[in-house]
Predict the 3D structure of the following.
Amino acid sequence: MTKLTYIAHDGTRFEVEAENGSTVMENAIRNAVPGIEAECGGACACATCHVYVDDAWTSVVGEPEAMEEDMLDFAYEVRPTSRLSCQIKVRGELDGLVVSIPERQG
Amino acid sequence: MSGEVALSDITTTDVLIIGAGPIGLFAVFELGLFDMRCQLIDILDRPGGQCAELYPEKPIYDIPGYPVIGAQELVDKLLQQIAPFKPGFTFNRMVTGLERLESGGFRVATDENEVFDAKVVVIAAGGGSFQPKRPPIPGIEEYEASSVRYAVRRIEDFRGHDVVIVGGGDSALDWTLNLQPVARRVTLIHRRPEFRAAPDNVNKMHALRDAGAIDLVIGQVSGLSGEGGELRSITVKGSEGDVEVSCTRLLPFFGLTMKLGPVAEWGLNLHENQIPVDTEKFESSEPGIFAIGDINWYPGKLKLILSGFHEAALMAQAAKHIISPKERIVFQYTTSSTSLHKKLGVAD
């Protein structure tokens, strides 16, 4: 199991144990983390699971692929650390990952 | 409304289906087996609903009989399956009005004032209608009555204006190219230098920019200013700080989102934006109006395509009772029934 921390826009921290191979979005939904909507269910077809990856983790998490970058055009207040959480697969090296949830989803 | 419509302008059908997603399409099949003619209306420009709009290339693994099938492939097969019943399609329309006629049946109106009379209405509207997403720019609502447009209905509305188009897809690029000749100035704003739109149009846009005929700004719109609902300028946050762009018409293309829309105004009981139905007929609180697929709710409801197919089959039985009350419904299998074979146009 891999530990993930979500920081809601109001600063509340949600720590969850995630199974490797699942997505950061799925774990947010399963644990009722507020602010992740995932309207399309994880098909990289909307931009409502937008998160900011903590600066310390961006290089480990990696860059979005072209399709995700296209969907990020629809997100709210996109920053260089923006990712769609349905496209981040949980794996051992992400143990301790911290992501923040934007003020609103697009 | 009823008094103003000439009879010749009314399309009549047995069953009017709101939504041409997979469930609306399969309903045509089940209704067709009982000789009911169907007309479908959808806000998108093609059939398939979410399958076509959100994830056409994605695989679906829980359609019985298909270990895996692409979403668009499923839509194509459903269209093939219902072809013998020759359904009518009306695309790019939102159903705005639904009222019961005194003579029985229903009158349905669209946002382009088309009118349909049907004996039965089936709401298969999924997550609601796809509508343009409002970009997250503070205060944008107050300009929506005039300066901010989410679609181009009349090019003339843009003549002589400082038009700002936001987005990187086909709509944004198409309108950049098409409005450039009529606008006072067109400025295209996109978050990054790469565009999703067709490469040919991206090249044409770059050529216009190089010729000084349009402006291209890389960044995100962060603020609006104007007064009395009329925009004067917008602020763009780019990598090199804020830029002020003159703007009297703003066209943001931020994709589509699903909204329940006018369904909420038809006097049906609702349960958290879904339509409660019984599990025998999948009928709403209004007799003759059915709801199937993701839009309905009943205890144990699962938003699965396969559940919607089942709901369509049971709904069709109930619809037949309404349309042909005196006819006895004979249960038949498509495998062996010669009369069903005739309807499907297959040889015995």
About this structure: The longest strand of chain B covers residues 10-18.
